[in-house]
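User: Could you go from structure to sequence for me? I need the amino acid at each position, not a summary. Structure tokens:
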């Protein structure tokens, strides 16, 4: 079995994998998403099919992501883990009071 961990930066990322012998290798990958935020998992609420993961990215900011329960299991996510929010948005809107 091989475990993979994402080490993210803005435009490219490294994936570190370890095999059953405990040896590490790095796979360099590029993401089309330009926004990655590093943080710590502070809350994990699992529903029937979807989980809500809260990631503390510092300075009092929390990012919440909805991901499948299967993804939580595959990533072996738990509170206290270091993780990354990888954001890919087709558009961003701005609103202002009239």
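Assistant: Here is the amino acid at each position, in order:
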């Amino acid at each position: 079995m091989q475990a993979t961990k994402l080490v993210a930066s803005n435009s490219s990322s490294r994936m570190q994998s370890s095999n059953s012998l405990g040896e590490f290798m790095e796979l360099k990958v590029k993401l089309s998403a330009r926004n990655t935020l590093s943080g710590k998992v502070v809350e994990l609420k699992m529903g029937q099919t979807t989980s809500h993961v809260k990631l503390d990215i510092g300075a009092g900011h929390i990012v919440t992501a909805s991901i499948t329960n299967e993804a939580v299991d595959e990533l072996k996510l738990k509170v206290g883990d270091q993780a990354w929010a990888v954001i890919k948005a087709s558009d961003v809107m701005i609103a202002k009071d009239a």
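One structural detail worth keeping in mind: The longest strand covers residues 35-46.
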